[in-house]
Design brief:
Two copies of one chain form a homodimer. By secondary structure, chain A is of the alpha+beta class. Chain A has two domains: about 170 residues, 3-Layer(aba) Sandwich (NADH Oxidase); about 60 residues, no CATH class. A four-stranded antiparallel β-sheet of chain A has the order 1-2-4-3, with helices on both faces. In chain A, helix 2 crosses helix 6. The longest helix of chain A is centred in the middle third of the chain and has 24 residues. Chain A is globular. At the A-B interface, helix 1, helix 2, strand 1, helix 5 and helix 6 of A face helix 1, helix 2, strand 1, helix 5 and helix 6 of B. Strand 5 of chain A pairs parallel with strand 1 of chain B, so a sheet runs across the interface.
């Protein structure tokens, strides 16, 4: 074990923050470190928008849930998958970009996620905490309007960061022997592991310091996955120029 | 600055490895730490397949490029976006999973990438190095056959890990003031920044210790993005049960 692994293990979402600003230099340090993440063939297909405008924050907070922390966190970032810069590179060299490939959508989305995870790690290493905000996909059209996000770019998720004013428990993850398989995808033995995990998560939900409740992982997932999820996303993504072909 | 940020900054892809095995306990430590990454609504929609079988490694190495390091690295992992476990959770609770939503595709792909980036960080903190293998998407059907990957699961990328037998330079990333924007997406000033970055990358390519060449970032990107990229991916992804609706 080492300090880095301990840092990873300590991760939990933080939604309450001290009223202590994060200075520009720290933001820059975090993002520059985050950019060192792997990137598919060097394309670096992402853009991060730091949202400072209070009215915009308020509206994004509202449409994301509401999730008040989007309004209140010292730092709010919107991570976008971005092919527009690559289109510009093509223009500079008088070439035409091939557009709309599912593959490009995957590459840009993955690149964005890798940078975002590094952002979280870098921030946590500096004593900050935070939470990803998938809720911006509730109304991605409006988010694009508010932030002038053009075609060939889409907001994947937001992230709130700040000095924690809360210290919640870490949430138990799936047993490693469910998610790590050897040589082939097999679900042998998973039934029992899921039962065991349901006991673990039930105990977690019953005993946690805030919002305790009766629930299990499979119960929570069954509830969520049996409902339609943001059905507008396919049309939205295609309209933005991604995943058409 | 701190040790974690220094670790992130030192990242570069490693493709040559010492012939020194990574023991099971270390693999487990790495994956367990990686699992602590954020996950959208707790869904943990990923599975990692550790590929040990030499013949399978050889074939994946071939179809990925060829990329010999897939065959030779002490550890080769395939990261899959996985909705199948969630389908199981629905069955346990006698519910029917809503399938094929673009949103689910995004969530599962992002979850997988977050865990993978944590895997890389955890591995690097233990003295290992590695490289992502997007090349498995050259022939995802065959990868699924080889690893028995069922519907509702797709292999997003692979990852080679091991003790480095090489010490390449880090690759200069885009200037932070191109990727980090304030309050709105704007390309003002980016023209000059790209020119500056082209000089930086040209210098990097000219002077690096192996495979030096004349190139720039925009030149490289224009070349790559003006070609069709894995055009089979849309049909493949839809066929696997993702992004249909």
């Amino acid at each position: 074990m080492n300090h880095v692994i301990e840092l990873l293990q300590k991760h939990r979402s933080i939604r309450k923050f001290q009223q202590k600003a994060i200075n520009e230099e720290m933001v820059r340090t975090i993002i520059e470190a985050a950019q060192c993440a792997s990137t598919s063939n060097y394309i670096q297909a992402y853009t991060v928008i730091q949202v400072c405008d209070a009215a915009v924050r308020k509206e994004i907070a509202e449409l994301s849930g509401p999730q008040l922390w989007v309004e209140q966190s010292p730092l709010f970032l919107v991570f976008c998958a971005d092919l527009k810069r690559l289109d510009r590179a093509c223009s500079i060299h008088e070439k035409k970009m091939e557009k709309g490939y599912a593959e490009q959508f995957i590459i840009a989305t993955v690149d964005t996620a890798l940078v975002a995870q590094n952002t979280m790690i870098a921030a946590e290493s500096l004593g900050l905490g935070g939470v990803f905000i998938g809720g911006i996909r509730n109304n991605p059209d409006r988010v694009c309007e508010l932030l002038d996000i053009p075609d060939d770019v889409y907001p994947v998720f937001g992230m709130c960061l700040g000095y924690p004013a809360d210290d919640p428990e870490t949430k138990p993850r799936l047993p490693v022997n469910i998610v790590l398989k050897k040589d082939r995808y097999s679900t042998e033995g998973d039934e029992q592991r899921l039962e065991e995990y349901d006991r673990t998560t039930s105990e977690y939900y019953n005993n946690r310091s805030t919002c305790s409740r009766d629930d299990t992982w499979t119960g929570q997932m069954a509830e969520m996955m049996s409902k339609v999820m943001r059905p507008h996303m396919k049309e939205y993504i295609n309209g933005k120029g991604f995943f058409v072909t």
